[in-house]
């Protein structure tokens, strides 16, 4: 082969290899950053003995579970929908939920509030719009300034930090016990935890568990008292369950 033909070939090969190497290093950097926020799980096959709460099979490790959740959270089409078409619509609906809680004296303008699994932060923005300005969300993928990076199986907060915690992603918890324990750990005594869950229908394909009644939640919230249960229409979730942490 002539030298003039070899040089372009080598040049193209070199730059292609360089691009692949850079992409791989960027991926490793992202994974390292993410791994610093998630817990190490010894048991790769979580089990729920309560017939009213079933863990979906198929996860060989905690990392495989996280990766499946990221497949949804990082989906560019979904992220575009969440920040455009769905943005104002969801804020309006969440604002209605939070205003109802304020009328029941379960949420106040002075409350320090956390939204768990908040994705782009619609519920955080809704809290701020109804007057609860000290509000923040957590998700595996941050969305500043409303949502910081955090794993709901291991919240990045001190004990007794919040007056109010809200989540509509209980069905995404691989370890429901840990999910609830973290809420109770970071709630102040007398603090309120609100979950929106699906009882009458099954959740989406990214869900890690299926809940069939409120009873398993009552068992999980060992340090709290059930305050209220009502039917809601919350983006595929049909039931609002409210607990207050014991003083």
TrEMBL record:
Superkingdom field: Eukaryota
Claim: Transmembrane is one of the keywords in the record: yes
BP GO annotations: alkaloid metabolic process
Keywords linked to the UniProt accession: Membrane, Transmembrane, Transmembrane helix
InterPro entries in alphabetical order: Methyltransf_11, SAM-dependent_MTases_sf
Species this chain originates from: Olea europaea subsp. europaea
Gene3D superfamilies attached to this UniProt entry: Vaccinia Virus protein VP39
Molecular-function annotations in GO: S-adenosylmethionine-dependent methyltransferase activity
TM region(s), chain numbering: 12-30
Domain Methyltransferase type: 114-193
UniProt-recorded name of the protein: Sterol 24-C-methyltransferase
């Amino acid at each position: 082969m002539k030298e003039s033909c070899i040089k372009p070939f080598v040049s193209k090969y070199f730059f292609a290899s360089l691009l692949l190497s850079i992409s791989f290093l960027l991926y490793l950097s992202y994974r390292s950053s993410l791994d610093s926020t998630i817990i190490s799980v010894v048991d790769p096959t979580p089990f729920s003995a309560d017939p009213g709460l079933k863990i979906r099979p198929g996860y060989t490790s905690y990392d495989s579970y996280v990766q499946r959740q990221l497949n949804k959270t990082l989906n560019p089409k979904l992220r575009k929908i969440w920040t455009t078409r769905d943005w104002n619509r969801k804020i309006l609906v969440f604002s209605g939920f939070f205003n109802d809680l304020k009328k029941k004296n379960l949420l106040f303008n002075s409350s320090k509030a956390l939204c768990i699994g908040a994705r782009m932060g619609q519920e955080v923005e809704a809290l701020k719009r109804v007057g609860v300005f000290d509000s923040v969300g957590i998700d595996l993928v941050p969305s500043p300034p409303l949502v910081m990076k955090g794993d709901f199986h291991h919240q990045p907060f001190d004990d007794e930090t919040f007056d109010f915690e809200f989540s509509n992603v209980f069905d995404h918890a691989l370890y429901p016990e840990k999910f609830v324990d973290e809420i109770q750990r970071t709630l102040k005594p007398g603090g309120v935890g609100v979950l929106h869950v699906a009882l009458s229908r099954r959740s989406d394909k990214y869900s890690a568990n299926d809940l069939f009644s409120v009873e398993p939640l009552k068992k999980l919230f060992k340090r709290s008292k059930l305050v209220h249960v009502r039917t809601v229409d919350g983006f595929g979730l049909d039931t609002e369950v409210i607990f207050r942490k014991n003083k």
